[in-house]
Design goal:
single chain, 164 residues, mainly alpha, Arc Repressor Mutant, subunit A, 3 domains
Length: 164
């Protein structure tokens, strides 16, 4: 069933602030299947629209939506930013927080790479330590085996029999 573009747009607006309705809520209200609504939201996001996941808090926004909001507001002054936030049910501090997170994304990658390098270094050190201990134990085992063979031969030479 094809829906008119106007109805589709009206339904998508219910996903935006101040309504912030979830897909199941809208499906029940409008009598439209949930998969259809999810597809509409997916298509709208693909076109660059910001559509939160239906929670009343900004935590309902996907990373992609948060990033889009940061990009859209990058050149706005304080007054325009406040207006943008009012329209979407956000606070300017949330946008600033998202911006800081975006800016630190590359730093996180470097920190993660450093941690990984440290873990690899520690694992290599531990591997060498275990190999050294393994060699020591193999030598001790070989020495013990040699002593047992020697003891057996000595018993055979001197005619002594071990009692079992």
């Amino acid at each position: 069933m094809r829906y008119p573009a106007e109805r589709k747009e009206a339904v998508l607006k219910k996903m935006l602030p101040p309504h912030n309705k979830t897909v199941p809520e809208i499906a029940k209200e409008e009598g439209i299947s949930e998969p259809t609504l999810y597809n509409w939201r997916k298509e709208a996001r693909a076109k660059g629209r910001l559509l939160p996941d239906g929670e009343t808090t900004p935590e309902g926004w996907t990373s992609r939506d948060k990033f889009s909001a940061v990009v859209e507001t990058a050149a706005l002054n304080e007054a325009d930013l406040a207006e943008y936030c009012r329209q979407r049910g956000l606070y300017p501090e949330q946008i600033r927080s998202w911006r800081r997170a975006c800016e630190q994304a590359n730093d996180w990658e470097e920190a993660h790479a450093r941690e990984t390098k440290e873990e690899v270094r520690e694992l290599k050190r531990r591997q060498k330590e275990l190999e050294r201990e393994n060699r020591r134990k193999e030598k001790a085992l070989a020495e013990t085996a040699a002593l047992l063979v020697l003891k057996k031969r000595m018993s055979e030479i001197w005619g002594e029999h071990e009692e079992e």
